[in-house]
Amino acid sequence: MLWPILTTFSLAALVCLHVWWRGRFLRIQRASRTQIEDLQEEKRCAALQMQTQQEVLFDSIVEGVLLLDERGRIQLANRAFGTLFGVTVDIRGRTLMEALRLHELADLVKSLDSQKQVLGYELKLSGLSERWLQVNAAAIFNGDGRRHGTVLVFHDLTRLKKLESARQEFVANVSHELRTPLSLIKGYVETLLDGARDNPEVATKFLQTIDRNAERLKLLIEDLLTISELESGRVKLNLSAVALSSVVAKVLEDFKTRAAAKSVKLLNQVPDLAVRADVDRLEQVLGNLVDNAIKYAGANCTVTVGGNAREGGPMEVFVQDDGPGIPPEALKRVFERFYRVDKARSREQGGTGLGLAIVKHLIQNHGGRVWATSELGRGTTFFFTLDQAIGNLQQPLL
Ligand code: ADP
Fold it and tell me: How many structural domains does the chain have?
């Protein structure tokens, strides 16, 4: 009678034990599964974070970087690469030819089959705006020596190339400008030495030409020194409140005789206001503009210096003439060094081709703007801006 009861209890106890063990086992299994999943998730996050960091780092590199796989397909291209080549779409998976259509670059990558790296290769990209790039390329190898891919680094040389070509052009222009008066001087001196000095009339004429060309050389060297000082940022402005009308009066006074010789009328219509400027440099700016107006506007013209003051804004000063004007395509370039609308006319007038470039630099050094408008047959107006000033006025010595 006891046995069946004991057996039933034992069985019940065994079942309970089994249920408890199974529950525990399942709980442990679940817990370890969650732990594994957590670990995997953590690893996934870390990998993702690392990839994001690498991408940010890759994109922050100033140089364009391109990574090709072993089949020559693009694996990675950073942001700078996109900017350099004007690429706006995702080019991963494409070949260089498919993505850029640049035979020269594809050939460069091909050349890495026979050499491990190419350094300092200069690539010229023609298009709307010409670009120069320096390419450094290297083949990447596996531990077992098999080609695994290619890395290319692109450095933008455009600014350097432009500076270099501007420098070369400047040196060529300076040499030409110096050589012309020097050759003339040498020629006339030789003719004088060969006997022309015995004829006083001829000798005087030749000496006057020599004097004129020596003067031109002096002016050119002075202008070159000014330009070089201005461009190197060595010019320190002595800014003060300057009575514009008085400075204009002084400049026009200096040009009175030259203007009278050509029957040019000079007018001062500048309002009685003060500007913040370096008085000597302001005189130089006005002098160059008035000098040009007298030179190029021709006889019987009128040259007016005026100003428009806007409340709270800078003062707009202008030098206007009613001469022949400047054609639109030339007007865009007149502030360039050595640019002349009519070379022969400028030289004949004793111009160095640097006057307006000096004006531009001086006004920009003051923080102002300079520009010109012109109508063929009606005249030209040069404008510049200067900050208005309040305070003790500095008057120029007349
Ligand atoms: P330059 O020494 O030849 O005068 P600038 O730099 O002063 O050099 O001027 C550049 C060119 O702009 C001049 O050669 C001339 O052709 C043109 N130019 C300047 N001012 C005037 C003007 N008021 N009217 C017509 N042409 C002008």
Answer: 3
